[in-house]
Amino acid sequence: MSPETLVQPSLSIPSLPVSTADFDQYVMSTYARFPLTLERGAGCRVWDTDGREYLDFVAGIATCTLGHAHPVMIEAVTQQIQTLHHVSNLYYTSAQGNLAKWLVEHSCADRAFFCNSGAEANEGAIKLARKYAHTVLGIQSPVIITAHASFHGRTLATITATGQPKYQKNFDPLMPGFYYVPYNDIAAIEDAVALLDAGERQVAAIMLEALQGEGGVRPGDVAYFQRIRDLCTEKGILLILDEVQVGMGRTGRYWGYENLGIEPDIFTSAKGLGGGIPIGATLCKSFCDVFQPGDHASTFGGNPFACAVALAVCQTLEQQNLLSNVQARGEQLRTGLRALAQQYPDVIAEVRGWGLINGLVLHPDAALTSSDIVQAAIAEGVLLVPAGPKVVRFVPPLIVSEAEVDQVLQAMQRAMVG
Predict the structure, then answer these.
(1) What is the mean pLDDT of the chain?
(2) What angle do CA 118, 32, 340 make, to 5 degrees?
(3) In 3D, which of 309, 412, 302, 403 has the Cα closest to residue 351?
(4) Active-site residue among 114, 242, 267, 305?
(5) Stated pTM of the model
(6) Which of 290, 319, 348 is the last residue of a domain?
(7) CATH of the domain at 394
């Protein structure tokens, strides 16, 4: 049957409203959801089922790079679904090759593997490091060092890599082969490498976030990361950076590692890569690309649909010079939040972040929690997200305007008063 003879769809499938009671009856309770049901979005704004408008400074948790219903994404989705949306990785597709080319040409990587999420991208990095350790370094019991307060995903391997016990509770036995150190502590990581290499286990890789997102929006220290880069080079250790939350322009540069003046051997991407369409990528330099056919795979990873949309996001990020907007709006937001901190010194301890990933840090002994602030902001028409019990995270779409940042700052002023 030729495309011309296919029956054209005539059925319009409505989005049926669902009560929160029905939702909770049928959906697993893996999230403590805020009490609003979102229905549609445009740009940096979303609307709930009651028609109320919100400025979205969550962006799917640093995912909706171009905001909601962006014309570029609509066009990419429409064109690709009408041609070829999914085939097996047994075949070549132009969309996957073109996306890989863009990512390699705009980073320090030489190769890309595509999957569906950040956790899968980090799984790929862990597997790649372990195979490299066995086949190149001759390590029998490889260890990957990660940081306390890190977050790398929800699979068994990635929650083990995640240095937060609250994510690991009741999921033991955990995966072996990980060791935790304090973040931004040079002496601690040097001691850990020496300790492990003196024993039966040896360090194969160090896996860190350039900026800890879930760990409280904590930027990496430049001297710390440059020492780690030197240490990895001296010892033959792989340096893996988890760029799932901070990559794709979020920090005002394409990749978080560019803020640190170093290059990783392996890094991962997801979230903002597809602008809200599920896709992840494990990227590496050629010397550690030890995967062979059959070593790793993904049924949906790198399919034409996801890759075409991701490429449209990447090209828009570049062609519209969104990095300049991220830098300007990030500075504007931090300046406004610091002014707020001066007004409420007993509540707000500091403001920290890069580009458009910023944290409002509350004093440990303050009565207010991050959830309290988020709830107050919702009442003022702004969506924010906690990054732990004492940090409020601001991660709007990268297209956010000066006027929208001002509107959020005014709303925060009202929320603090309330």
Answers:
(1) 95
(2) 85
(3) 412
(4) 242
(5) 0.95
(6) 319
(7) 3.90.1150.10
